[in-house]
């Protein structure tokens, strides 16, 4: 479980996150939705400590991450897996080396075991026979999947995904979404997914937080989302004609 | 203001580079790779530039001291001392500031803007140390060899130019380069080059590491890395010359 309490974060005097609080439970897909520029990435990066917050607390299973000495933080970090908006694979390493990287860095396993684990993770994301290719030699969707494989290599307790399906076709996007949901349930991870894709919201939105202009405007599940009378949320969801039509049918 | 800001952040960056290390096995593998990428791949350009530099120094010296009272072997001696004391270490370092500095800054800068550095940070790896320390160590190990190669090739270049143009006979030149030879001059030059290697790699690493935005900014960081490390080389050259030879 991850708990964010009253997070405030600003850059150069401009406040991006305005007092955001939220609780993310394990074993379910927690979604953060909001317009481009609303602060989703900043929020996710603040949770994992890539941005130091101005004030507020972040608790990882009751461990206060914000006030912890660096030594303890590193321990918590090794329980995190993160998927970045642009995949962020290491270009100088092959697919297999990318997935093996966390294992090479943090485990004492023999090379054979590490390779086996890497192959297992690659199979888990339905990738085979690409081990020796470089990131530039595979498609965007495959890169995303490699990045997921790398994020889960160490069996993390906490999984963070920043727009896992941006730039993918609808079919691949759904495959990735479902993959994230399956892994979350399988290993009882605490998973947080940033997205502005309504398909994801409806598909895997078990717990949804809507951020508007750096503030939490709404919270609920994909079942509640059509019933909400929150104006900003409705403007966001029903921006497309398609979803307006759905609403009229309901 | 911005100058002080960079000095302070650079100092903190260097401290981080030498902070918490990664596994030794991985570290040594990286050093070997960087010795190849940064050092061995620069041998060619160092040889070419040093040869011509030695040739020009010898000819310049010959034409400038073309007096009957000065013996011909003085040309060899003067060329030797210029090459060993000054040209090899400074020129090799300036070449490397351009070649290696821009390479390091753009590599690390690209990793920054594509969030690869964030990946390392999230895992709890000391990203500055992981990325920059192997490069610092590799260039510190390689630069003395490059400088010694440059000295040798420079003197060969001088001999070739001097004898083919006929400004200095071969035996006089060879006598000159051995006359009153002070081995400390080589040590002095190598000490300087090691300091320069440190400056090039850390300054280029710094600009790459703190790149923001996109590929345009990475290009800008890379230019800045070259300009600033070149200036620092010249500045420290002055300081070290005063400290070591005075
Ligand atoms: N490092 C930074 N320095 C200064 N401002 C920043 C920084 N990172 C983000 N911002 C600002 O914070 C705001 C929120 O950005 P953020 O990246 O969180 O948006 P987002 O919700 O993830 O958008 P998108 O859906 O497009 O990814 C933006 O106005 C951005 O300019
Ligand atoms: Mg974002």
Automatic annotation (TrEMBL), chain A:
<keyword id="KW-0067">ATP-binding</keyword>
<dbReference type="InterPro" id="IPR003439">
    <property type="entry name" value="ABC_transporter-like_ATP-bd"/>
</dbReference>
<dbReference type="GO" id="GO:0016887">
    <property type="term" value="F:ATP hydrolysis activity"/>
</dbReference>
<dbReference type="GO" id="GO:0005524">
    <property type="term" value="F:ATP binding"/>
</dbReference>
<keyword id="KW-0813">Transport</keyword>
<keyword id="KW-0547">Nucleotide-binding</keyword>
<dbReference type="InterPro" id="IPR003593">
    <property type="entry name" value="AAA+_ATPase"/>
</dbReference>
<dbReference type="Pfam" id="PF00005">
    <property type="entry name" value="ABC_tran"/>
</dbReference>
<protein>
    <submittedName>
        <fullName>Phospholipid/cholesterol/gamma-HCH transport system ATP-binding protein</fullName>
    </submittedName>
</protein>
<dbReference type="InterPro" id="IPR017871">
    <property type="entry name" value="ABC_transporter-like_CS"/>
</dbReference>
<feature type="domain" description="ABC transporter">
    <location>
        <begin position="2"/>
        <end position="238"/>
    </location>
</feature>
<dbReference type="InterPro" id="IPR027417">
    <property type="entry name" value="P-loop_NTPase"/>
</dbReference>
Automatic annotation (TrEMBL), chain B:
<feature type="transmembrane region" description="Helical">
    <location>
        <begin position="37"/>
        <end position="63"/>
    </location>
</feature>
<dbReference type="GO" id="GO:0043190">
    <property type="term" value="C:ATP-binding cassette (ABC) transporter complex"/>
</dbReference>
<dbReference type="InterPro" id="IPR030802">
    <property type="entry name" value="Permease_MalE"/>
</dbReference>
<feature type="transmembrane region" description="Helical">
    <location>
        <begin position="179"/>
        <end position="204"/>
    </location>
</feature>
<protein>
    <submittedName>
        <fullName>Phospholipid/cholesterol/gamma-HCH transport system permease protein</fullName>
    </submittedName>
</protein>
<dbReference type="Pfam" id="PF02405">
    <property type="entry name" value="MlaE"/>
</dbReference>
<feature type="transmembrane region" description="Helical">
    <location>
        <begin position="225"/>
        <end position="245"/>
    </location>
</feature>
<dbReference type="GO" id="GO:0005548">
    <property type="term" value="F:phospholipid transporter activity"/>
</dbReference>
<keyword id="KW-0812">Transmembrane</keyword>
<keyword id="KW-1133">Transmembrane helix</keyword>
<keyword id="KW-0472">Membrane</keyword>
<feature type="transmembrane region" description="Helical">
    <location>
        <begin position="136"/>
        <end position="159"/>
    </location>
</feature>
């Amino acid at each position: 479980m991850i708990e964010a309490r009253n997070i405030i974060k600003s850059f150069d005097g401009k406040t991006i996150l305005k007092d955001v609080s939220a609780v993310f439970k394990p074993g379910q897909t927690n979604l953060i939705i909001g317009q481009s520029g609303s602060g989703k990435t900043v929020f996710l990066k603040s949770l994992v400590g890539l941005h130091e917050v101005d004030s507020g607390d972040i608790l990882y299973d009751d461990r206060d991450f914000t006030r912890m000495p660096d030594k303890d933080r590193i321990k918590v970090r090794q329980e995190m897996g993160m998927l970045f908006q642009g995949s962020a694979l290491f270009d100088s390493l092959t697919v297999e080396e990318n997935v093996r990287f966390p294992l090479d860095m943090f485990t004492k396993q023999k090379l054979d075991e590490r390779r086996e684990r890497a192959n297992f993770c690659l199979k888990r994301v339905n990738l085979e026979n690409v081990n020796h290719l470089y990131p530039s030699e595979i498609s965007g969707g495959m890169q995303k999947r490699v990045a997921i494989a790398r994020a889960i290599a160490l069996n993390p307790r906490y999984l963070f995904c920043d727009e896992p399906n941006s730039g993918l076709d609808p079919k691949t996007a759904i495959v990735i979404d479902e993959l994230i949901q399956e892994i979350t349930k399988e290993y009882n991870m605490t998973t947080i997914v940033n997205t502005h894709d309504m398909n994801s919201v409806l598909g895997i939105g078990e717990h949804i937080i809507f951020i508007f202009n750096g503030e939490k405007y709404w919270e609920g599940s994909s079942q509640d989302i059509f019933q909400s009378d929150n104006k900003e949320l409705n403007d966001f969801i029903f921006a497309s004609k398609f979803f307006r039509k759905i609403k009229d049918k309901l | 203001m911005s100058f002080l800001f960079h000095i302070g952040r650079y100092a903190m960056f260097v401290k981080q580079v030498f902070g918490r290390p990664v596994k030794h096995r991985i570290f040594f593998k990286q050093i070997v790779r960087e010795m190849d990428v940064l050092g061995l791949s620069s041998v060619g350009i160092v040889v070419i530039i040093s040869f011509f530099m030695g040739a020009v120094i010898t000819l310049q010296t010959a034409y400038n001291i073309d007096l009957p009272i000065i013996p011909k072997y003085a040309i060899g001696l003067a060329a030797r001392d210029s090459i060993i004391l000054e040209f090899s270490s400074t020129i090799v370092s300036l070449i490397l500031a351009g070649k290696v500095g821009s390479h390091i800054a753009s590599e690390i800068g690209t990793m920054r803007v594509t969030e690869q550095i964030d990946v390392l940070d999230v895992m709890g790896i000391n990203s500055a140390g992981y990325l920059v320390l192997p490069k610092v160590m590799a260039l510190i190990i390689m630069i003395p060899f490059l400088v010694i190669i440059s000295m040798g090739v420079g003197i060969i270049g001088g001999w070739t130019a001097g004898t083919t143009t006929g400004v200095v006979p071969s035996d006089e030149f060879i006598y000159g380069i051995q006359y009153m030879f002070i081995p400390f001059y080589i040590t002095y030059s190598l000490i300087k080059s090691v300091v320069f290697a440190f400056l090039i790699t850390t300054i280029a690493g710094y600009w790459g590491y703190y790149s923001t935005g996109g590929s345009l900014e990475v290009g800008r960081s890379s230019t800045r890395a070259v300009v600033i490390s070149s200036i620092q080389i010249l500045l420290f050259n002055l300081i070290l010359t005063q400290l070591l030879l005075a």
